Amino acid sequence: MTALDPGGTHERAARPGADGLLVGLTPEQVQAVRHADGPLLIVAGPGTGKTRTLTHRVAHLLATDAATPGEILAVTFSVRAAGELRLRLADLLGEVTARGVLAATFHSVCARILREHATVFGRTDAYTIYDQADLQRVIETLLADHRRDAIQHAIQAWGQPPPAELEHEIALAKSRLLRPSGYEAVSRYSAAPLVSALWEAMEHELRLCNAFAFDDLLAFTVELLQAHPSRLAHLRARWRWLVVDEMQDTNVAQAALVHLLAGSAGNVTAVGDDDQAIYRFRSAEPRNILEFGARYPAHRQVVLGHNFRSRTEIITAAATCIEQNKHRHHKDLVAARGVGGRVTTRGFARDIEEAAWATSVIADALAAGTPASEILVLGRTAFATAPIQAALAAAGIPHRVLGSLGLYERAEVRDALAYLALLANPQDAHAFRRAIQAPRRGVGMATIGHVVAAARGYFAGDLITTAVNAVLLQDVRSAAAREALSTFGTGLDAVREDYRRGRSVGHIVVAALTLQGGVVAFHETRRDRSSRTDERRDGERVLEDLRSLCRAAQAYADQVGPAASITGFLEHVAGLHAEEIRPGEDRRITVSTIHRAKGTEAQLVVLLGCEEQLLPSWRALQSADPEDLEEERRLFYVAVTRAKDQLVLTRCHVRGGRATGGPSRFLAEAGLDTRTRAAA
C-alpha cells in the first residue's frame, strides 16, 4: 500500500503506539512529547525539529487517549505550515484521524469563529474578507468623498498621507487591540486625528458591505470572547488542547486569543525561538515568548538543542553573534551533523564586483553538483540583491525572486476574485466596483455610486439584483450604462442560481469568469485580435493566470469535499502568500530578502550586504531603543542559520553609488574575518 492512495488519503498498515512515537527523538524532544497537562513552552532553535516534535506531541496525546482529535487546535502563521502539520499527522495517524485535528492559521480559526457569530457585529456568515489592497481602495474612496466632514477637516489640519501608510497604521492599531474611539489618545502618529476619523468611516463602510478587514478577524474574535463568557466557555470545551507554532511572532491580539482559549492553567503548548523574532515591524511581540512563564506560572519549559541542519562551523558563528543579545532564552545548539562546513567572508570595492564574484561562487557550486534548489541568495533588502539578479541573468543561471508578485496579487486575478466575492456576498460594494469595471463597460464611478445607493435603499444591499433591475434606476441616465449593468447583473444572477442549485465550486468559478463580456472574453480578444505582439502575449499570460485560478478552485473543492463553498475558497485564497514558497520546490536558485526566507534552508547560502547601515540598518543604528539593534542581530542570525554546509558573507565599500558604513559589526561578533578583500 502506498502512502498516498488514489483518493488522497494517507493510510498505513500499522500505527505507532505511544512508545513507538518516541523512537528516534532526542531526550529533549521526548520530554516535550510526553508532557502531560498544563502549559508547555518548547524553545526550538533553528533546525531542531520543531515540527516533528509538535506532530509527535499531538499524536502522543491521541495515542494515550489524553485527547480526541476534535479536542486539539493547532494554530500556525501560514497556510503552508498548517498544511505541513496536517500531512505529517496523516503520515503518523492516517487521514481519517488527522482530519479530526484542526490545524489552521490564526486568521482562519478566527474566521471560523466569526462565521458562527457574525450577527454580533452586524454581518452575515457570508461576509467578505478584505486584504490590504482592498482596504487601500476603500480608503481612497473615503478620502475622495467630500461629504465626510470629519475626514475632510482632518485632511486640512494634518495633511493626507498615502492610503497604504494609513492602512498600515490602522492595521498596527488593530493588532494592539485598540479601537477607533481610544486610538488618538495613545497614538504617536502625526496624523492620528485623520486615522481616527478614517477608521470610524471604514468600520461603517465595511459593515454596509458585509465585510471584515483581514486584521479585524483577530481583533473582533478577541472582543467577542471577552464580552461573551458563554461563547468562550463553549470554545474552551471544544478545544481542550491548544498548540501554537512560532510563538515569538505573535502580536498582542494573537497572544490575547491564545490566553483566552487556554486560560492561565490550560493545556497550551507553545513552540518558538526568541532568537528568530524578526517581525516587530508587523507588530510581533517577542515578549510573548520571553514572558510566557509570567503569563503561565505553572508552565514547563523544554529547550531543543540539537540542530540537524547546519554544520558546526555555521552554528558556532551564529551562536557567537546572537549571544550578544541581552533579552533572550539561553540555549546551547549542538550541530548533529558535526564539522565539515565552510564559512567564507569577502569584501569588495563596489556592489557590481560583489555580485560578479558571488555569481562565480554559485556557478562553481552548480558545476560541482549542488542542485540549484539548494542555493539561496539573501539580502537585508531587495535593493541589496538587485545587482546579483542582473549578474545571474547575464551568466544564464536560472533564478527566481522569492516574494515577487504572486498569482493572487496580480491585478487581473484580483478582478476575477471580485466576481466571486460579489457572488458570495452581493452586498460587497467594493467587489462590485471592481467587477463592473473589469473590463470597462461604460459604467463610470458616478453611476456606480447611484447603483450602490439604490441597492442599499431599495434592494436590501443586493447589488446583483440591483444591476438586473438597472432599467428602474432613474439616477442612471445613460441607456448604454443601464444595458451594461443589466447584462452584467443578469449573467451573475444566473451563475448565482446555479450555485444555489448545488453546482460545484469549480463549475461556478469557470462560469463566473466566462460570462458574456467578462474577464475571459476581454483577454481572449486581446490575445486573438490585438495588432500588438506584446499585448497578444500579455493576453495569453492573463488567460493562463485565470486558468490557474480555476485549477486552484477545483483543487480546493476536491480537498474540502461537500463543504466547499465560494466563501470558503475566498477565505482560502486570503491566507495564501508568495513568501510561503520554499527554495526546494523549484529547480532554480532562489533570491530573497531575509524576512521572506525564514523557514527555508539550503546547502549553500550567500548573504550579501553585510555592512553597517544595511545589516544592521541605519534606522536601528539611529534608534534610541536597544531592541531595534537586537532585532537586526536576530535577522543576521536567521540568515546564517539557513545554511547547511556552506555560508558565504559579502560586503562592499560602495553600494548603489553611495559609500557604505563598512563591515557589519555582526561579522566580528560572529568571530569572522572582516579584513579579507578580493582582488580588484
Short note summarizing the structure:
This protein has 31 helices and 17 strands.
Outline the structure in words.
The chain is α/β, with parallel strands linked by helices and 680 residues long. It has four domains: 20-112 and 220-307, Rossmann fold; 128-209, no CATH class; 316-403 and 583-669, Rossmann fold, CATH 3.40.50.300; 408-574, PCRA, domain 4 (Orthogonal Bundle). It has 31 helices and 17 strands. The strands form four sheets. Strands 11, 12, 13, 14, 15, 16 and 17 form a seven-stranded mixed β-sheet that branches. Strands 3-2-6-7-1-8 form a six-stranded parallel β-sheet, with helices on both faces. The protein has a two-stranded parallel ribbon with strand order 4-5. A hairpin with a 2-residue loop joins strand 16 (643-655) and strand 17 (658-659). Helix 5 crosses helix 11 (216-227). The chain is globular. 45% of the residues are buried. Mean pLDDT is 90; it is low at 1-13 and 577-584. This is DNA 3'-5' helicase. Residues 1-20 are annotated as: Disordered. It holds the Pfam family UvrD_C. GO terms for molecular function: 3'-5' DNA helicase activity; ATP binding; ATP hydrolysis activity; DNA binding. It comes from Solirubrobacter pauli.
